[in-house]
Structure formats: C-alpha cells, structure tokens
Amino acid sequence: MKKEPMVGVGVIIIKDNKVLLGKRKGSHGEGAWAPPGGHLEFNEDIEDCAKREVLEEIGIHIKDVSFVIATNDIFKEENRHHITLWMVSCYDYGGLKKYSEIEKWEWFEWNNLPEPLFIPVQNLLKFNYDPFK
Q1: Would you give the distance in Å from CA 38 to the centre of its chain?
Q2: Cα(67)–Cα(9) distance, rounded to whole angstroms?
Q3: What is the pTM of this model?
Q4: Alpha-carbon distance 120 to 10, whole Å?
Q5: For residue 109, how far is the Cα from the chain centroid?
Q6: For the chain: N or C, fewer Cβ within 10 A?
Q7: Residue 8: phi, psi to the nearest 5?
Q8: CA 24 to CA 61: how far, in whole Å?
Q9: Structural domains present in the chain
Q10: Cα separation of 40 and 19, whole Å?
C-alpha cells in the first residue's frame, strides 16, 4: 500500500510579544511542545483551517492570519510524514480551554522556547524564522 504525506497546518499565535505552545500528550510527538494546528480538510482554505483548528483546540479566535512557510516533517519512529503549512496570526479574543491531546498551554517568548520541540517546529526553526521580524 502506497503511503503519502498528510498536510498539516501549524498556527503561530502572537499575543503580548509571546507565542502560544502546548505540551502534546496522547498522540505522536508526545511530550514535545507545539503550537496549535491540525490537518487540512478536503476543499478547505488554509486560513480557514487555521482558524477552525485554533477555535476547536483552544477556544480562541485569531485574526491577521497569513502563510509563512512549509516544512517537510518526517517522523521516522512513527512511520509518519507530514507537510506542514505554517501560518502566523494574532490573538483576537477568547479564553484557553483544555484539549485532550495537550497537557497544558503556555505563552513563551520566541527566543526562549521550551524543550523538547515538536519535529515540525524544529524544522521551522532551521529556516531562522522569527514571527516578530
């Protein structure tokens, strides 16, 4: 059976000069820190996917959503392959809610991110991306 990469959307949310990350649990990348995101659905606009995933996972609304870059993310141990479309956005309104696949949500300064980072985030950083520049 032929396997093909899945398309993921990662959403960097900016609020008060910090970005939101969650510590993953119960899914691939468990224990790693990552921004919210999910899989692009068939016929879905990337910006709409970012807004939907953030609202579903966190319960907040975002604005000023724009595309940043794509990363090629291979999870060898889990036999998974994702292409992640990275979006950057600003917090608009709403409060953080619990999500079954995230142990906790926290806001971090971009130059002081926690470890370990989810593989797609590690790959994003290889491009020297900085959402504040």
Answers
A1: 7
A2: 10
A3: 0.95
A4: 8
A5: 16
A6: N
A7: -110, 160
A8: 21
A9: 6-125 (3.90.79.10)
A10: 22
Nearest of 16, 9, 103 to residue 55 by alpha carbon:
9
Task: Let me know how long the chain is.
Answer: 133
- Which ranges of 40-110 would DSSP assign to H, the alpha helix? 46-58
- Gap between the Cα atoms of 118 and 120, Å rounded: 6
Q: Which amino acid is at 52?
A: R
> Could you list the pLDDT tens digit for every one of the 133 residues in the chain?
678 999 999 999 999 999 999 999 987 789 999 999 999 999 999 999 999 999 999 999 999 999 999 999 999 888 999 999 999 999 999 988 888 889 999 999 999 999 999 999 999 999 999 999 8
